[in-house]
Amino acid sequence: MTKNSKIKKYNAGIPLDISEEDIMEAMKDIKGYIDITPGDFKELYRLGYRHAIERLSKFFKAGDVMTREVYSITRETSTEEIAQVMASKGVTGLPVIDNENRVIGIVTETDFLSQLGSKDAKSFMDIIAQCLRSKGCVALPLRKQKAQDIMTSPVVTVTEDTAVTQVAAIMTEKGINRVPVTDRQGRLIGIVSRADIVQVSCELATKTGD
């Protein structure tokens, strides 16, 4: 079952209206006496809408929104190959796995930039990939390195049962854009990105607004 079909399945089973509970929670957010005017009602609706999105989001787990076809690398993968994969596949991070498919780290654009002394620079992995194949550039010292030399480890992971809201909170707290999803043995089964979470939020917003 694809990610989109799972989202549709969940949408079909969730009451996508603003509940009385959402309205009550919204009323608590409004300070002082409420004299219902068009402006008050609009504000009440806005807050109720927000609570509805938050409530419905709890129905979704990482396993429902994750990308299952994950590009991964091993600790021995060269930096040149990593950069080429990231550039050609249009991804900004690759999980590092061991021989048993367990996640042992992750390599991101930030890891490359850190090696170049440019933590705050913008990321252009296609440029780095070309640079690693040429001579005389700042990235040249990376040519002899491997994933194990630049990867971030240990890496933050979640399970299929982790709520999407919790995944979003982890990303915000850790300042990361993607989280590998593993089974109970730590083996890679998928990955959740900020884009996946945004897609779910948009789906819910559209349905709730109908």
Automatic annotation (TrEMBL):
<dbReference type="InterPro" id="IPR051257">
    <property type="entry name" value="Diverse_CBS-Domain"/>
</dbReference>
<dbReference type="Pfam" id="PF00571">
    <property type="entry name" value="CBS"/>
</dbReference>
<dbReference type="InterPro" id="IPR000644">
    <property type="entry name" value="CBS_dom"/>
</dbReference>
<feature type="domain" description="CBS">
    <location>
        <begin position="66"/>
        <end position="123"/>
    </location>
</feature>
<keyword id="KW-0129">CBS domain</keyword>
<dbReference type="InterPro" id="IPR046342">
    <property type="entry name" value="CBS_dom_sf"/>
</dbReference>
<protein>
    <submittedName>
        <fullName>CBS domain protein</fullName>
    </submittedName>
</protein>
<feature type="domain" description="CBS">
    <location>
        <begin position="151"/>
        <end position="208"/>
    </location>
</feature>
